[in-house]
Amino acid sequence: MVVRYAENKEESAEILRLVLQKMSEWRLSFTPIHYTVVYEYVTNINPGLRKVLDDLVAAGSLDDKRIEEAYYGFIVPEQTLPVLEQRGLLTQETLEILNRMSESANTTMQNTQKARYGILSQHNALRTAEAVDSSLLQSVISKLAGETKKLLETSETLENQLRDSRKEIESLRNELQAAAQASALDPLTGVINRRGFEKQISVCLETHEKKGSDCSFLFLDIDHFKRINDEYGHVVGDRVLQAVSQVLRAKTRGEDIVARYGGEEFVVILPATPIDKAHIVAENIRQNVERIALLNAKDSKTIGVVTVSIGIDVHKPGQNWRQTVERADKAMYQSKQNGRNRTTTYFQL
After folding, report:
1. The whole model's pTM is what?
2. Is the pLDDT of residue 8 over 60?
3. Would residue 264 show up in a list of annotated catalytic residues for this protein?
4. Residues 205 and 329 in one domain
5. pLDDT digits (tens, 9 = 90+) for 51-78
6. Strand pairing report for 215-222 and 265-270
């Protein structure tokens, strides 16, 4: 196991003071993600992240979104190490199973060879005997029965071990698959994370490019999400993220890809969907998100609504998918500038 944060109580208290001071200086909201990023900044355990943040501060462009991008770019990838460790353990267990199977096979071969020699010796005894009497036949039959019993026992043992090994291998395969899926999922919303998205998008586009069909990209951003966190707390913010992701899954098809791209941003890929149909899907999503109400926990009265701004672009065969995401992102920002809670296509810019 990799221990990333190994400070003692006194050291961590001083780091806490520095982190809170820096977060206040940068006017960041006090979320676990932001705290983690600033923690690694003040402790300088992540030089690459520190350089990026210094550059953003110098340029005057550091904000919550940039902090979250730094989190997903510099910290989350390193948190997949436990999955790699688990994969290594599974590999070791698989090797042990194979070794046991090999030993069983060797034992079976040795016992079979011994039985073969025993049978041949009895065959020769009968063939070379000057006279075959009942006692000789009884001896040969008894020895053949013994060799046959040994072969059956060896065969049964091997069969049982192979059956057990198949079960173990199937169990290991399921564990490995579960570990791989877990590393690609966003634990809060249940949709795939950015890492999972990047794995799936290439396969998806390759499949549909062979068919010559277009894929539409939706880029969504929850409106005023920072204000929701600031006014109602991060528990409410998390529930908003979960509610939006539920709408996305409910209003898309099984072959569509829904991913949390970072922070309050989501990306939806609609395979074999022209831009006019994608606009209908986007509006359906937007209108259903608009029905999400923020309720006062004390009296259950509505204290606000949730909305999203959406951008759309169509991905043509042969294009770089990252450019398509970027264009959909630009279209989404145009929706923000036009008043939020609306859908804009890249061709409208």
Report:
1. 0.54
2. no
3. yes
4. yes
5. 888 888 888 888 888 888 787 777 664 4
6. antiparallel
Q: Tell me: the pLDDT tens digits for 117-148?
A: 665 665 666 566 555 455 655 665 566 556 66
Say which amino acid occupies 115.
A
Number of domains in the chain: 2
| Two structure tokens written together for 346 | 């890249």
Residue 207 located in a structural domain: yes
300 φ/ψ sector (left φ>0, alpha ψ -120 to 50, else beta)? left
* The one catalytic residue among 130, 264, 283, 290: 264
**Between 47-59 and 32-43, two packed helices, what is the crossing angle to 10 degrees?**
100
For residues 189 and 241, give the distance between their C-alpha atoms in angstroms, rounded to a whole number. 7
* Among 197, 217, 221, CA closest to 347: 217
Per-residue b or e along 138-176, where b marks 16 or more CB atoms closer than 10 Å to that residue's CB: eebeeeeeebeeebeebeeebeebeeebeeeeeebeeeb
Tell whether the model's pLDDT for residue 1 goes beyond 50. no
